[in-house]
Amino acid sequence: MKLLMLGSGTSTGVPRIGNDWGECDPHEPRNRRMRVSIIVENDAGRKLLVDTSTDLRAQLLANGVAKVDAVFWTHDHADHCHGIDDLRVMRYDRSNPLPGFASKVTCERLRRRFDYVFEGQFGYPTLIDLREITQKQLIAGFSFDHVEMPHGPVTSTGFRFEADGKSIVYATDFSEITPAMVRCFQRADILVVDCLRRRPHPTHANLDMALELARKAKVRKTVLTHMDKSMDYRSLCSEVPANVTVGYDGLEMAA
């Protein structure tokens, strides 16, 4: 089982428009961050995409990804879903829509915002068969579980994917650690975790909270993501424990 990090940045990316790098060294390529999204792949080569970031087309081209077997959404914030139209190309050689999964609330909001994707329109086919997640399920050789996480005044869905005896957890956009999160993520091989900045934030995990979740869930490896312009790659690498990786666009890691 393998993790591919398509994007590791916050909602504005790094650098921000205006060539604003903040505290990030512009000469370090791993500081250039697109909006967050990942792919998990099993030993059979089946791929699951989590979130359709606003940079999705560029991410898929940069990593040579031509198709995926299913799509998951953590929530409906723009940086996590507004690249959805880039999935059209993946429908061309399929006889049926691509399977998609999200919470009930996220399903409702995505259907309102992108009705043509889920209903078809003007002779164009439905792109995604969107399904509400209700329990632990199977898709494309993976089993997956989920948990709703506090994200300021709303929630975001955390996912646990299992295949080939390994597990990868994706927990981005949360502002509090709950007992349900710790249970769902317990002893995962890889935890990909929200880590916006060092200072506390009202809707996101900071570095201390990200590391706290990793400790409480007793995960084997941790990868930091959703980082803003204050999180310089090399500076962070010198701060984190040995089993923690500072994520970057294009990172590949075996579970």
UniProtKB/TrEMBL annotation:
The keyword Glycoprotein does not apply. One of its GO terms (molecular function) is hydrolase activity. The keyword Hydrolase applies. Keywords: Hydrolase. Coiled coil: none annotated. Gene3D superfamilies: Ribonuclease Z/Hydroxyacylglutathione hydrolase-like (3.60.15.10). Transmembrane segments: none annotated. It comes from the Bacteria. Residues 46-227 form the Metallo-beta-lactamase domain. This is MBL fold metallo-hydrolase. The lineage of its organism: Bacteria, Pseudomonadati, Pseudomonadota, Alphaproteobacteria, Sphingomonadales.
